[in-house]
């Protein structure tokens, strides 16, 4: 990729993650995030009149390149023993003891609980989080939360592009001595880790990185697809919330006319799980468990919690920072620790797609024939369905990737 030398080249090559790191760290404010209406994603737009060609935007870009080997060495001092989870210390399952926080979060409410207690106990002065915009309810709004209420407002999942790192600018400009936590997907954390090599001030200010497990991110076309299936015009939406209201949660849409539409989890998550609306750069990502965060969180999709309706979080600690937070927080661990295989089991289908299934036409000597065949089947069919999405019955989205699910379940036995 030697022909890619600028942030504009990254966008043209469809390598932009839409994370916002370049915009948040541009010293001349020469970049802003805009929505590419055709692709349904955020991309950076350059103002040539303000740009001084410093190259910082390209240097911090996680879409162009992430050197996993180098970052592991710099952050953990070693390469990971486990190829699926990355470097880690312990694995846990837990939940927030505050019922309202747990009930109104995606799963367990641990991130919300940890942030609140870190804030109220003076460990941090604010947290980089994301809520949905009030004036444009289908778009996310990254911001620095400085109160309990603001942290709670940012709970729940956002199944849409999120340029979270645009808020890094506010962290850099914060008062001397202020400290922050950040919450992000793997691409957001990748961008921050790369940025810290250039901005030492950023490394001093961001003292806690909380990562979210991520199979992939969805473009805005997924929300449009869901609304069209509900026969609800975009202009009629007043508020939209994914997850929350127990586990695994529901899609809540407040309509401007005063009504409310509630869509059960298994009805709307099909569009996400189909990966039809996956952002192009996500197809090249190999990080599912946010390997460079301090603590990584995800849903506890385990047999023991199959009938749970309150929510548990499975999480991975990668250094000692959780121990400091845990002493202060009102969270409850399901048990002192779980095996790494429990974490792998809870996310194995996504781990299979990210870590084992070869990327299209990327067969190596280690790739089995069946995985290479499934990869081609999957990407060809995915592309075909995407081109005809409005004519495809909903049931097809639910079942077309069954061969991949079966393969992942059979393969999991090797990791037990």
Number of separate strands: 13
Largest sheet, in brief, is: 8 strands, mixed
Q: Determine the number of helices (DSSP H or I, runs of at least 4 residues).
A: 18
What is the rounded Rg?
Answer: 21 Å
Helix percentage range: 25-40%
- Taking all residues together, what is the mean pLDDT? 91
Question: How do the strands line up in the largest sheet?
Answer: 5-4-6-7-11-12-3-13
Structural class determined from secondary elements: alpha+beta
* Percent strand: 15-25%
Low-confidence stretches: none
- Cα end-to-end separation: 38 Å
Which overall shape is indicated by the principal axes computed on the Cα atoms? globular
What can you tell me about this protein's structure?
This protein has 416 residues and is an alpha+beta fold. Helices cover 35% and strands 19% of the residues. The protein is built from 18 helices and 13 strands. β4 and β5 (140-145) form a beta hairpin. The longest helix has 19 residues, at 369-387. It starts with 6 loop residues before the first helix and ends with a helix.
């Amino acid at each position: 990729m030697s022909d890619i030398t600028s942030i504009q080249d990254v966008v043209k090559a469809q390598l932009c993650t839409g994370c916002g790191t370049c915009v948040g760290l541009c010293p001349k404010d020469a970049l802003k995030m805009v929505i590419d209406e055709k692709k349904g994603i955020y991309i950076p737009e350059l103002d040539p009149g303000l740009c001084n060609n410093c190259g910082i935007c390209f240097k911090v870009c996680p879409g162009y390149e992430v050197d996993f080997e180098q970052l592991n060495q710099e952050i953990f001092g070693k390469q990971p023993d486990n190829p699926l989870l990355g470097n880690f210390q312990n694995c846990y399952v837990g939940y927030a003891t505050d019922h309202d926080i747990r009930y109104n979060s995606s799963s367990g409410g641990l991130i919300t609980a940890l942030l609140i207690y870190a804030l109220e106990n003076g460990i941090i002065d604010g947290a980089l989080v994301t809520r949905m915009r009030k004036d444009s309810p289908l778009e996310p709004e990254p911001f620095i939360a400085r109160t309990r209420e603001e942290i709670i407002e940012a709970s729940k999942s956002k199944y849409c592009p999120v340029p979270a790192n645009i808020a890094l600018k506010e962290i850099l400009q914060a008062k001397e001595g202020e400290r922050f936590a950040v919450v992000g997907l793997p691409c957001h954390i990748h961008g921050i880790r790369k940025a810290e090599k250039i901005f030492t001030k950023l490394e001093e200010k961001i003292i806690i990185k909380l990562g979210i497990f991520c199979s992939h991110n969805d473009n805005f076309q997924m929300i449009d697809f869901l609304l069209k299936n509900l026969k609800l015009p975009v202009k009629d939406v007043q508020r939209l919330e994914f997850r929350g209201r127990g586990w695994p949660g529901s899609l809540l849409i407040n309509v401007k006319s005063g009504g409310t539409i509630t869509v059960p989890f298994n009805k709307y998550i099909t569009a996400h799980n189909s990966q039809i609306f996956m952002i192009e750069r996500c197809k090249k990502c190999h990080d599912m468990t946010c390997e460079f965060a301090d603590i990584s969180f995800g849903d506890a999709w385990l047999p023991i919690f199959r009938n749970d309706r309150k929510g548990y979080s499975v999480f991975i600690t990668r250094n000692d920072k959780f121990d400091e937070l845990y002493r202060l927080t009102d969270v409850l661990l399901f048990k002192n620790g779980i095996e790494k295989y429990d974490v792998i089991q809870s996310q194995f289908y996504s781990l299979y797609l990210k870590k084992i299934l070869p990327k299209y036409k990327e067969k190596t000597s280690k790739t089995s024939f069946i995985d290479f065949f499934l990869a081609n089947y999957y990407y060809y069919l995915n592309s075909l369905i995407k081109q005809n999405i409005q004519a495809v019955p909903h049931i097809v989205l639910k079942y077309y990737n069954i061969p991949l699910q079966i393969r992942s379940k059979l393969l999991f036995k090797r990791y037990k």
